[in-house]
Amino acid sequence: MNIFKFRTTVLLFTLIVFALSVSVCREVRAQDQAMDPAATDILKRMTDYLGSLKKFSVHTQNTLEELLDSGHRVDFEVGANVIISRPNKLRAERRGEMVDQVFYYDGKTLTLYNPVDKVYAMEAVPNTLEGMFEFMYWSLGFNIPISDLLYADAFRLLMQDVTLAEVIGQTFIDGVKCDHLLFSRPGVDFQVWVAQGSRPLPHKYVVTDTTSPALLSIIMRMSDWNMEPVVADAQFAFVPPKGTQKIDFMPFTTGENK
Amino acid sequence: MKTIVKITLISTVLALMFIADIPLLPVNLVPEAHAILGVRRRTAVVAYSAGAASASAAAASSQQQAAAAQQQAAAAQASGGVPVGTVVQALPSGCKPVTVSGTEYQACGGSFYKAAFQGNNLVYVVVEKPI
Fold first, then answer.
1. How far apart are CA B75 and CA B73, in angstroms?
2. Nearest-by-Cβ selection for B44 from A119, A140, A207
3. How big, in percent rounded to 5, are the helix, strand and coil portions of chain A?
4. What is the CATH number of the domain that holds A104?
5. What is the mean pLDDT of chain A?
6. Cβ <8 Å between A248 and B116
7. Please, are residues A57 and A203 in contact by the beta-carbon 8 Å criterion?
8. Which of A123, A206, A220, B27 could be bridged to A191 by S-S, CB 3.0 to 4.6 A?
């Protein structure tokens, strides 16, 4: 009887130990395969292609996940029509619950215009898209979500500190077959859905803040890609309509640097 | 019997060692972050690479400042005037637009507000009475 109990005990523990070591092994193996070159290749193809476009327009539908004071999570929708003419012109019309705003950049001046409030602000900014994005982020305190993908060296910036790159699978977005990629870096996970074929355009981009357990994301869907938009300088320069008031940007300080 | 106890003990210790190596399931208790309510995390990959910590700290501190300012405003309103420099997201009720040398202000119960963009948000800042 004793010997039976002994055997059962040993068997049970052996089994537990075996099961545990298997799961540990699987984790170690997962780490070894963390950087899939197939995923980084597709991302590179996409950023190279976007960088090569002289002009384009796209509609983006952004979902901003937020936590309410009550602790409930809600999604805010913002649609944007973005038109870009390289090297240094951009216009974005953003309409949604939280913003109703037109953003102009004509290569010299950035204008933020709230048509409903009838106010606008202007600021002299650097003469490249990249310089303008930097200025906007560090000196004015805001950014355009799609800017991540538009930098000339977007690939390097996106891949910085990335510890995981994975092809999750293939799917259709708006009828376009896309590769679904996942990347992870400390504090941020991002997913990109890139069209297969000769036009590797992003059709969806999700950025998740992994520093908080709420795992809030910004979800951006991109549609109506147009590589031949009609661009005229007048589209990017703001002429204040009658009755609109010019206001200022409040100085933005990071608290540490200034 | 002694052997059984010994083996059981050793196996248990071994098993515990393995368990300790396995990361616990990511079950997080209700985090403190939830307490910082209304914090808008404008997550951006590139922006994060440029200095996530300082940027989000700045965002948090500016939120706190705004909250503090709003509290001040509420306190000051009770005693008659709102301190200059107070930033609010929405104007109090009963404001009248006043234009002084081409600039529009909102006169609200003895205080003057001027519109401004904080980031890309429209806010109102309390200013000295314009002359």
1. 5
2. A207
3. 30, 40, 30
4. 2.50.20.10
5. 87
6. yes
7. no
8. A206
